[in-house]
Task: inverse folding
């Protein structure tokens, strides 16, 4: 029976392979456009909303300066799109300094924003570089409701320490093992939570926090839910979570002066407040398109 | 394969509140709660429909419509619309468990030999007494069959509860998936969890089959097997019982 | 937290919805077809040799009992596929279809009256032709009934694949769940439900069309 199934499996796989060629599902597999591509920049983005919005902002800002742009949205995880950057099938993608550094140097000790940024160029592959980092940060943080913050008078994770034993902590399953996740919080702050609840990132995490199913949760600092639900981000004075500034990662060959100036001008305008606001617009009840939000913001800041 | 077996037999994974035994208990807990609630609703309802012959469309309509309803969607939507917790999950599971029990009870009552019912009435029994003393005991094999097939559906579907922050054996699959393919707690954890889920389903199926045999008196067993129509209901797996998870 | 119902999302994302629906149908229906093709010879063998029956029918019961999330998860271990691979969903669906149909086909073939096969043999039908021209057509109503259950189940089972990253309409359900977009979820649920009921109706109709004699017999009985 198993052999029969394996046979069917092979047949199905063959069908799949054929149909995959017809679709445009794997943009990384496509050949680069030939000839005169010196002025064309292919902008990629990862599989989450903020990345797609930032990529759209980069793309539209460049187009405004006369650069020809191609878009390759939703390329999946870092492991997947990084191959595309190395082989030149995409040229530019919005990244975050801390995770980018750790991706290429797993044991990198730097946590502070400037240190992380300074360590990046040496860690990156030959053909890639980063431009100016933005002030905007999006990193993991411990978040509580306004009510909890008032009750326990919380401003930073240190204030939470006496209450850790009463707290059910919620977050994505992987933070149970990540160095800056539960083990990091325990080591850095000597905080051991009562228990842990596995939550999908996104709406359900916010919901669990508001329901009281969990008392504190791991949420990205730029999550629109923070502003929308008046949540409180606890400060991290001991830098358990490494700095994560938004930064354009680009192919050196494509980083002409115009491109550099344009993207650095964008980064100069991007602070954490702005990123929060942009995510809030993206998450507005009518779920607007990335391109519209990007266009609106670029108009507002005169780019 | 080896890393999966190592994960499965690592003593560290067999103790504590997140160990395999604790998750099995959680899983069985969700299942028992759901099936009890569903039976409390569907057995009386099915008995009344079968006894009076009114509302037959409900039985057929529910089985057909609910089989096509994606349980993942129902579960996540209910949680989003209410709150993160046990109640919305149990409601979604009960909705799934109703049709097989309803259909089993209805068919059981309908399949009772007309001459038996006539004899009971001839002896002066009233409608409710006929239902209690004659129809329901005679329908027991098919009612239990319905409960058995509902239980298996719920065990399968309770694995999804982990996606909406509950426990149970689905936890291992979901957590392993999020940990990333390369991690030692990635695929090995997923596969080990899947093996436990499969074994649990098979064991429960075996136990229920035995319960079904023991609970039914030998006289009734003969009646049920003589009727070919009844056979389909008495052994609901895998004949024509659909599954949505 | 308010649940968002962004109805304008729907007209803006028609392309995305159509693409997800196509993927869903491909993930769900191809295995049902493959399962049908495989289970006819298996059912034939089981109806002919009691030894085969003794192995196949309980095996089908066991396989059908295994929850889908478990089976989906175990495919990479058993067949060496990648962690994210459409086959991880399609192989379990094919297995469920086979488990359902093998038993139906076996029962249906065993129920063909001996005098019918004897008559067919008497007028010169060789075994292979007799199977294709007499026994199999007589089993069609039972096979169609099983196929309907398998196809409808497959439509809703496919959504489970979204939990391990194999999309279809289930991907819209999980995405809507993450982004607090109830419209996206409801659209995906409704499409799965409606398409499943349409497929069910089409199979019922097809079954009647290819077995005209069942209607004649009903007519004659009146």
Result:
């Amino acid at each position: 029976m198993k052999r029969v199934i394996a046979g069917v499996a092979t047949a199905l796989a063959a069908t799949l392979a054929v149909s995959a060629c017809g679709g445009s599902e794997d943009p990384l597999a496509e050949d680069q456009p030939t000839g005169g591509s010196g002025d064309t920049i292919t902008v990629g983005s990862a599989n989450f909303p903020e990345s797609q919005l930032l990529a759209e902002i980069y793309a539209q800002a460049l187009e405004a300066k006369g650069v020809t742009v191609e878009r390759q949205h939703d390329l999946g995880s870092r492991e997947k799109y990084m191959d595309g950057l190395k082989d030149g099938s995409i040229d530019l993608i919005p990244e975050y300094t801390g995770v980018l550094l750790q991706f290429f140097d797993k044991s990198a000790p730097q946590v502070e924003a400037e240190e992380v940024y300074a360590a990046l160029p040496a860690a990156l592959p030959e053909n890639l570089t980063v431009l100016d980092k933005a002030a905007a940060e999006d990193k993991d943080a411990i978040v509580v409701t306004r009510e909890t913050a008032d009750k326990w008078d919380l401003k930073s994770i240190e204030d939470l320490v006496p209450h850790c034993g009463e707290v059910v902590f919620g977050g994505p399953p992987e933070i149970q093992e990540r160095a800056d996740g539960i083990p990091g919080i325990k080591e850095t702050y000597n905080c051991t939570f009562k228990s842990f609840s596995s939550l999908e990132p996104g709406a359900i995490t916010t919901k669990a926090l508001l329901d009281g199913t969990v008392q504190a949760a791991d949420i990205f600092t730029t999550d629109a839910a923070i502003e929308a639900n008046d949540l409180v981000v606890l400060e991290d004075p001991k830098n358990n979570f490494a700095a994560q500034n938004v930064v354009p990662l680009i192919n050196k060959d494509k980083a002409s002066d115009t491109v550099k100036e344009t993207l650095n001008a964008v980064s100069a305008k991007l602070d954490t407040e702005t990123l929060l606001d942009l995510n809030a617009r993206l998450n507005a009840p009518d779920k607007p398109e990335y391109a519209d939000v990007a266009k609106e913001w670029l108009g507002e800041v005169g780019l | 394969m080896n890393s999966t077996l190592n994960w499965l037999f690592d003593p560290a994974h067999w103790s504590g509140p997140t160990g395999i035994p604790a998750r099995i208990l959680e899983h069985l807990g969700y299942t028992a709660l759901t099936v009890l609630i569903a039976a409390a609703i569907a057995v009386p309802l099915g008995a009344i429909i079968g006894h009076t012959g009114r509302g037959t469309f409900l039985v057929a309509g529910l089985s057909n419509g609910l089989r096509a309803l994606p349980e993942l969607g129902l579960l996540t939507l209910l949680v989003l619309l209410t709150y993160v917790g046990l109640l919305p999950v149990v409601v979604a599971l009960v909705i799934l468990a109703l049709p097989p029990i309803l259909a089993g009870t209805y068919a059981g009552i309908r399949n009772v030999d007309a001459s038996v019912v006539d004899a009971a009435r001839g002896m002066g029994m009233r409608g409710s007494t006929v239902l209690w003393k004659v129809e329901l005991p005679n329908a027991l094999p098919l009612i239990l069959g319905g409960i058995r097939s509902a239980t298996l559906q719920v065990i399968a579907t309770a694995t999804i509860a982990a996606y909406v922050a509950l426990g149970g054996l689905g936890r291992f699959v979901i957590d392993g998936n999020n940990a990333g393919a390369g991690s030692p707690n990635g695929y090995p954890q997923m596969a080990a969890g899947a093996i436990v889920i499969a074994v649990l389903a098979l064991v429960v199926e075996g136990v229920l089959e035995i319960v079904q045999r023991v609970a039914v008196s030998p006289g009734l067993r003969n009646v049920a097997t003589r009727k070919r129509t009844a056979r389909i209901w008495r052994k609901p797996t895998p004949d024509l019982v659909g599954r949505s998870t | 937290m308010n649940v968002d119902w962004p109805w304008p999302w729907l007209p803006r994302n028609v392309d995305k919805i159509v693409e997800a629906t196509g993927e869903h149908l491909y993930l769900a229906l191809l295995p049902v077809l493959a399962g049908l093709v495989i289970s006819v010879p298996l059912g034939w063998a089981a109806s002919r040799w009691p030894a085969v029956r003794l192995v196949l029918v309980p095996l089908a019961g066991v396989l059908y009992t295994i929850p889908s999330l478990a089976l989906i998860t175990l495919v990479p271990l058993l067949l060496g596929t990648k962690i994210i691979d459409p086959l991880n969903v399609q192989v379990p669906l094919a297995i469920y279809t086979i488990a359902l149909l093998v038993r139906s086909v076996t029962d249906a073939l065993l129920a063909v009256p001996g005098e019918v096969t004897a008559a067919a043999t008497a007028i010169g039908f060789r075994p292979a032709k007799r199977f294709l021209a007499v026994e199999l057509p007589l089993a069609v109503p039972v096979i169609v009934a099983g196929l309907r259950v398998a196809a409808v189940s497959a439509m809703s089972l496919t959504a489970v694949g979204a939990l391990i990253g194999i999309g279809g309409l289930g991907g819209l359900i999980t995405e809507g769940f993450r982004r607090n977009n109830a419209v996206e979820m409801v659209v995906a649920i409704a499409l799965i439900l409606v398409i499943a009921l349409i497929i069910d109706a089409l199979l019922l109709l097809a079954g009647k069309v290819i077995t005209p004699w069942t209607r004649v017999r009903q007519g004659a009985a009146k």
In short: The longest helix of chain B spans residues 20-52.
